[in-house]
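Lab manual, section 2.4: Encoding a predicted structure.

Procedure: take the sequence of the chain (372 residues), apply the prediction step described in section 2.3, and record the output as structure tokens. A sample record is shown.
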Amino acid sequence: MTQNNTPKDLQRNVPARRITFTKRVGFHAKLRERVSAYFEDNRLTRNANSSMVTKSLVIVTLFGVTYFSMLMSAGSPFLTFFCAAALAQCIVLIGLNIMHDANHGSYSSDKRSNRILGYALDLIGGSSLLWHTKHNLLHHTYTNCHEVDDDLEVPAILRFSPGQPWRPCHRYQHWYAFPVYCFMTLLWTFKSDFQKYFSGKIGEFDIPQPSRTDTVLFFSLRLFYFFYMLIVPMFFHSVIHALLLFLFIHAIVGLTLSVVFQVAHVVEESIFIPTECGKNEIEQEWAIHQIESTSNFSPTSKLSFAYCGGLNFQIEHHLFPNICHIHYPAISKIIKETCNEFGISYVSYPTFRKALGAHVSYLRKLGREPAF
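Recorded output:
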């Protein structure tokens, strides 16, 4: 008899098909014990502290300043696009630093506060409703599992996993992948989110039935996003200029978010698992699989940590998504020590440049025609 080793907090609202991790070697149990002891011994909360709240307020303030500066700078195209670029970076900061922790329930100990802050994703063009299934459940539970992890389900011109079919155009994907990344958030905003909502599915997984309130918020917040990001700028700039600004902002946001997430999983050192139809078991402990399919970058860079919302410590985030990212540097020491004891490889690139190079190298490798 097999035993599901997936953490309980990731088993809620499980869709029709459940894939279980069948091994239990004691690594995850030991890790949870040591991390819990760290918080208890130091009398720390697992959630945000005052510095995190201050940082969030600064980011939101900068968002407001750059947005209104973009509107008011109509007389200078250069200044307008400079403000638009700054606004795009503020959107990235909101996504990586505020909404990400909130939608994982780690920003605050209060569920209602997390839910409210989680709507920041809707206000920057995404959907917190779909995020909980797409990201929290499918990506975090089944990381790099082909046909299950929705983050691997990208346009056919890209190949992120050995389990995906090869096409001749993939020979050049290491050249054109980054321009494609520029369109990723635009695709989510106008197409993918609506497809998922109306189909009620993400891949072969059912999305939990949304409540009436969820439905109203999904559509009203998306309309509000289109209003303030597309319609309002047309009162200050020409229609063409406003559309170009909108596309320019999405290009920056799409490229930035895609790169931050892909360098953590789509690299040669990461494990990819094909999940065959009808085969619903993975012979590995869940926590070990998370480490084998994830990598860190720039662990000593305070700038990377502040900018990425701790997602340069992606291993720590995948093992403990319910802990606010401000604690990742401290618990990373515990995780590395435990990995050494159990003989588990802990991949951490010393710089972002190294991680980016590993991503490009792996795109090139996946672009080669498979030998049959």
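Check your result against the sample. Confidence is low (pLDDT under 50) at residues 9-16.
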